[in-house]
Amino acid sequence: MTANPILLPKKYARIIEQFSKKENLSLDDALNFSYHSEIYRLISEGVSDLHCMSDEYLTEELIVEYKKKS
Questions:
Q1: Three-class SS state of 10
Q2: DSSP of 16-68, one letter per residue?
Q3: For residues 6-39, b (16+ Cβ closer than 10 Å) or e, as one string?
Q4: H or E element at residue 2
Q5: What does the pLDDT look like over 22-63, one tens digit per residue?
Q6: Calpha distance 6→68 (Å, rounded)
Q7: Rounded Cα–Cα distance for residues 42 and 29 (Å)
Q8: Distance of alpha carbon 24 from the chain centroid
Q9: Which of 11, 31, 45, 52 is the residue whose CA sits 20 to 30 A from 2?
């Protein structure tokens, strides 16, 4: 299943905003990390239909990746 190209950027925006708030990062820092993350790559490539997962789940996965790299 491929993600709707119009809806996917909105999903990214919601995830980045939640990530920014939960990790007390500026939106710029959250955006920069997110777009270079493994989670972003997997979602954008359509791996395992990750785009179908909830925003909360994907935010938590992004936080786990962030903490591993920090």
A1: helix
A2: HHHHHHHTT--HHHHHHHHHTSHHHHHHHTTGGGGGGS-HHHHHHHHHHHHHH
A3: eeeeebbeebbebbbeebebeeeebbebbeebeb
A4: none
A5: 999 999 999 999 999 999 999 988 887 888 999 999 999 999
A6: 31
A7: 20
A8: 16
A9: 31
Q: Is the pLDDT of residue 1 over 70?
A: no
State the Cα–Cα distance between residues 60 and 33, nearest whole angstrom. 14
Distance between CA atoms of residues 62 and 68, nearest Å: 10
**Contact in structure between 65 and 37 (CB atoms under 8 Å):** yes
What is the value of pTM for the model shown? 0.90
As to burial, measured by CB atoms within 10 angstroms (0-12 exposed, 13-18 middle, 19+ buried), residue 2 is exposed
